[in-house]
Amino acid sequence: MDYDDTIELGDVVAVGDIHGRYDLLDGLMEKLQGTQAVVIFLGDIIDRGGRDIEVVERVRKLTEDPESEGLSGCFCLMGNHEDMFINAVTGTGDDWGTWLHNGGNFEQYGELQEHLDWFEELPVYITIGETLFIHGGIWPGKDPFDTINLGHTNTLLWMREPFLSQGPLFEKWNPELKEVVFGHTPADDGKPYRIPQGICIDTGAFFTNTLTAYNATRSTLMQFTAVPSFV
Prior knowledge:
Layout: E1 12-15, H1 22-32, E2 38-41, H2 52-64, E3 73-76, H3 80-90, H4 93-101, H5 109-113, H6 116-120, E4 125-128, E5 131-134, H7 144-149, H8 153-158, H9 163-166, E6 179-182, E7 193-195, E8 198-200, H10 205-208, E9 210-215, E10 220-225
Parallel strand pairs: 1-2, 2-3, 5-6, 6-8
Antiparallel strand pairs: 1-9, 4-5, 7-8, 9-10
Helix pairs in contact: 3-4
């Protein structure tokens, strides 16, 4: 895989799972500021890393005013952790326990709750040109739009197999698409990896101290690494 920090006007750059690591987000944004790129956060921006509200406020502002940091556009996708938080706020006690068990930030719950409406409106996936961006994955050979319409959105947020081994099988539902960029399932070695017709850029930021981005326009990777201040 090629690593290159080059970004030019209009490049589409996806950012992997942040998980509350504001230090990594801030460092990576220094590389992206002023590039006029289109940036897509792949979800799971909260939980585990400890600085959730700072991450949410920064990412939300970027989606609402990308030009404030010199971007031409910015989107944030729904991750399974955002979905768990929504369920914790709106659902049952079991939902609350599930969120906390998976690294939910109890200390920042109240502040995060103020962004509930924004969380609920996050898209599950987005397509730009020949690329599909999603947090978890899709059912191979099936349009994710149909999966959502059938009420199975949750499976796309948590998807691993058979997606990881088979890929999206674009030729069965949209041959115009060529690549899927996703997060959710970091490799054991904490490195980005490819699947059929796709690439995973979740590099386990919380435990590897490395946040990865992928320039889908140029098929290049960039990373930012930092030692967490709370250790």
